[in-house]
């Protein structure tokens, strides 16, 4: 039983392996937000058909059974039955039990509101599809960020472990020199402080890596504790994500997803105004009714010899709105105000998109420049730290100078890693704005 249980557990813990592009494609289908966005599109499709169906033939049927426990009594002149004139005789008409079955066909012939509703349902479907595309682009950006963060955390741990190893070696050598009376105790203490800080950062980085991996799993829509292998490194990603030609890419507003959504929203407000205007038009519909009825003193409606009497009626119905105490006028004016507001918001959105594109280009260019600068600074910091190590062990500089050089190196290492991630993230943001998402 223990073996079977362990086998089942191992089967449930599925492992994954992703390149960045593979992770993006996987998340588009399995990310929790992306899944619900697809359901919103499906719901919009159903709503479109729901609206369409209201203008198609509608058939309703019903069965009505009545049992008059106390039949109504009517009064008729007594002379009808040979009684005294001027008096009335109580009589009961009909039978106690009746059953009626009816079927009615209704068909809408003309309704201005129905025409507008069809247009609105189509616009709403486009709006839902555009929201799904925006969700896809946002999921792509989130995956890029999460993927890069995991790689950054792993690289940071490797760097810290390498720094720790170097510091432990320095500490051992300095301690030995101090024991031989050739170094001061402060030199040992300075290295101990630096080593203690590195160990604390290393422990925290391991915890951050675990959290980053869990966040990545959530972004992909897989189990929090699933084993995931990332097949690309930061060095590979930085080469793939430095694209100066992207900075020359022009913004095409019609391809921007935020522009499409704002345009859909404005169109919805226009159709709402049109709907209020069309409510002043007449509504014409037709109907055909067929029914059958049976009467009995007892419940004999299921008997073969029960007599049923047929009836049928056909007709048209015309509803003409005449006066609403200016209620429809107020609704129309309110819809017109909402439409004007939507147009103003649309103009504002266009300006914001253009500003957002310029800002994203600037941020991407700055990220590239910052990366190049941090790479050069890292090389310089490594050289300075090596020189200070040599000087320290030759007695030409103090432990304080060595510690300052080491801290400068550690800062340069962190800035370099963050610069790589910034390039990757800023490119993803610029592509989200400039490049239309694929369906």
Q: Main traits of this protein?
A:
439 residues; Outer membrane efflux proteins (OEP); four-stranded antiparallel beta sheet; two-stranded parallel ribbon; 8 strands; 64% helix; elongated
Order of helices and strands: HEHHEEEEHHEHHEEHH
CATH architecture descriptor:
Up-down Bundle
Level-1 CATH class name: Mainly Alpha
Class from secondary-structure proportions: alpha+beta
Oligomeric form: single chain
Distance between the termini: 48 Å
The fraction of residues in strands falls at 5-15%
| Largest sheet descriptor | 4 strands, antiparallel
Name the poorly predicted regions: 7-11
Number of discrete domains? 1
Q: Report the count of strand segments.
A: 8
The pLDDT mean sits at: 90
Helical content (DSSP H or I, runs of 4+): 55-70%
CATH superfamily: Outer membrane efflux proteins (OEP)
Q: Going across the biggest sheet, name each strand in turn.
A: 2-5-7-8
Q: If helices are DSSP runs of H or I spanning 4 or more residues, what is the number of helices? A: 9
Rg computed from alpha carbons, rounded to a whole number of angstroms: 40 Å
**CATH fold group:** Outer membrane efflux proteins (OEP)
What does this entry look like structurally?
It is a single chain. By secondary structure, the protein is α+β, with helices and mostly antiparallel strands. The protein has one domain (15-55, 111-281, 325-434): Outer membrane efflux proteins (OEP), CATH 1.20.1600.10. 64% of the residues lie in helices and 15% in strands. It has 9 helices and 8 strands. The protein has helices at 2-12, 20-30, 32-53, 112-179, 185-220, 234-241, 257-278, 327-393, 399-434; strands at 15-18, 58-67, 74-77, 88-91, 97-110, 227-230, 283-296, 309-319. Strands 2-5-7-8 form a 4-stranded antiparallel beta sheet, with no helix packed on it. Strands 1-6 form a two-stranded parallel ribbon. Helix 6 (234-241) crosses helix 9 (399-434). The longest helix is centred in the first third of the chain and has 68 residues, at 112-179. The protein starts with a helix and ends in a 5-residue tail after the last helix. The model is unreliable at 7-11 (pLDDT under 50).
């Amino acid at each position: 039983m223990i073996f079977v249980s362990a086998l089942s557990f191992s089967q449930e813990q599925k492992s994954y392996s992703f390149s960045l592009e593979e992770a993006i494609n996987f998340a588009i289908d399995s990310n929790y937000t992306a899944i619900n966005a697809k359901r919103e599109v499906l719901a919009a499709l159903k709503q479109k058909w729901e609206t369409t169906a209201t203008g198609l033939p509608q058939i309703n049927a019903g069965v009505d059974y009545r049992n008059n426990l106390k039949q109504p009594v009517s009064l008729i002149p007594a002379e009808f039955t040979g009684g005294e004139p001027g008096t009335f005789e109580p009589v009961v008409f009909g039978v106690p039990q009746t059953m009626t079955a009816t079927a009615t066909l209704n068909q809408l012939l003309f309704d201005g509101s129905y025409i507008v509703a069809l247009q609105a349902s189509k616009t709403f479907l486009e709006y839902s599809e555009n929201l799904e595309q925006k969700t896809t682009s946002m999921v792509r950006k989130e995956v890029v960020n999460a993927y890069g963060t995991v790689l950054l955390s792993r690289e940071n741990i490797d760097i810290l472990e390498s720094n720790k190893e170097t510091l432990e070696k320095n500490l051992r050598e300095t301690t030995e020199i101090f024991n031989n009376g050739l170094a001061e105790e402060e030199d040992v203490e300075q290295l101990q402080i630096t080593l203690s800080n590195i160990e604390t950062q290393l422990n925290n980085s391991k915890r951050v890596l675990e959290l980053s991996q869990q966040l990545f799993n959530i972004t992909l829509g897989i189990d929090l504790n699933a084993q995931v292998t990332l097949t690309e490194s930061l060095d590979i990603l930085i080469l793939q994500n430095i694209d100066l030609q992207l900075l020359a890419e022009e913004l095409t507003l019609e391809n921007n997803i935020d522009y499409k959504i704002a345009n859909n929203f404005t169109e919805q407000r226009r159709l709402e105004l049109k709907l209020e205007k069309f409510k002043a038009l007449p509504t014409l519909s037709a109907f055909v009714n067929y029914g059958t009825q049976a009467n009995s003193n007892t419940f004999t409606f299921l008997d073969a010899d029960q007599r049923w009497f047929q009836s049928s009626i056909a007709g048209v119905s015309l509803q003409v709105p005449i006066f609403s105490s200016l209620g429809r006028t107020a609704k129309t004016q309110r819809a017109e105000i909402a439409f004007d507001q939507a147009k103003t918001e649309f103009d504002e959105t266009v300006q914001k998109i253009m500003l957002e594109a310029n800002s994203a280009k600037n941020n991407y260019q700055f990220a590239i420049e910052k990366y190049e600068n941090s790479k050069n600074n890292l090389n310089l910091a490594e050289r300075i730290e090596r020189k200070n190590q040599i000087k320290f062990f030759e007695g030409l500089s103090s432990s304080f100078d060595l510690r300052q050089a080491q801290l400068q190196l550690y800062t340069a290492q962190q800035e370099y890693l963050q610069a790589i991630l910034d390039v990757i993230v800023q490119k993803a943001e610029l592509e989200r704005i400039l490049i239309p998402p694929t369906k």
